[in-house]
Amino acid sequence: MDPIFEKIEKAIDTEIESILYFRKNLDPSIKQAIELILECKGKLIVTGVGKSGDVGKKFLLLYLPQEHLLFFYIPQTQPTETPESFRVKTLS
Fold it and tell me: Are residue 92 and residue 52 in the same domain, yes or no?
């Protein structure tokens, strides 16, 4: 088999294993966390660095109701830098 296709299949298999593991280990606290977020009134601020930051941004853009005011906080990378934040526009 072509080495590129082998790598693609391995990556897909890894994703499948991760999803199945997540499904098998679902915890009631996940539902509770989602309910708390959806019941949130006002502003919701999400932060993260690296991949967790990317996941946080995607979560804000894709999964939250349009009536929320959404912010993503970018942590300081240098002690002298001012933290930045930006408003994520609600989806319309």
Answer: yes
For the cut 60, the answer to whether the pLDDT of residue 46 exceeds it is yes
Do 20 and 65 lie in a common domain? no
Strands 84-88 and 69-74: antiparallel
Compute the CA torsion angle 32, 34, 36, 42 (nearest 10 deg): 180
Query: Does the model's pTM come out above 0.70?
Result: no
State the CB neighbour count (10 A cutoff) for residue 49: 11
Query: Residue 10 phi/psi, 5° resolution?
Result: -65, -40
CA distance 76 to 48: 11
